[in-house]
Design a protein that fits this description.
It contains three helices and six strands; from the N terminus they run H-H-E-E-H-E-E-E-E. It is α+β, with helices and mostly antiparallel strands. The chain has a domain of about 80 residues: 3-Layer(aba) Sandwich (Protein Transport Mog1p, Chain A). The protein has a six-stranded antiparallel beta sheet, covered by helices on one side.
């Protein structure tokens, strides 16, 4: 019986040592520094690395697809029937999000859904015999990664 009690106490001690660190009122683990998850969501964005090399030529987008002067295209790929165009927006996430929404409306496209969070946003669209999404990711200060996925319409 003593052996079971001792083993139970050892097991409890080991398990309590494996639990997640509790945070103090300062928002960091007690006695520690901020975790990577905390630093990802708090504070300013890091400075941007040098911009990716621009795409030579114009990517293949549907007829009438709005192109914005703030976007520099850097690549294009076929993924099955979809065309995926990558690039970046010079500016912040708010201006990229509102810029694409306005451009679709002005180009006779329909915004079918949109969502904006702290550092990413999506604008879904239809028009030009296609449907798709513009995905916006703000990973550094002053530049937003842009991924445009275009699917043929039905």
């Amino acid at each position: 019986m003593k052996r079971c009690i001792v083993l139970s106490l050892v097991a409890v001690a080991l398990l309590s040592g494996c639990s997640n660190a509790k945070t103090s009122t300062g928002g960091t683990p007690t006695g520690g520094t901020p975790t990577s998850k905390e630093t990802d969501t708090e504070g300013p964005l890091p400075s941007c690395e040098p911009a990716p090399t621009p795409l030579a030529g114009t990517p293949s987008l549907p007829t009438g697809f709005p192109t914005l002067t703030e976007v520099t295209f850097t690549g294009t790929a076929q993924q099955g029937p979809s065309t995926v165009v990558s690039g970046y927006w010079t500016g912040d996430l708010d201006s990229a999000f509102s810029g694409f929404k306005s451009a679709f409306t002005g180009a006779a496209y329909t915004v079918t859904n949109d969502e904006m969070e702290e550092h990413d946003a999506e604008v879904n669209f239809s028009g030009g015999n296609s449907t798709g999404q513009v995905k916006l990711m703000e990973e550094c200060e002053g530049r937003v990664d842009v991924t445009i996925t275009v699917r043929p319409g039905s």
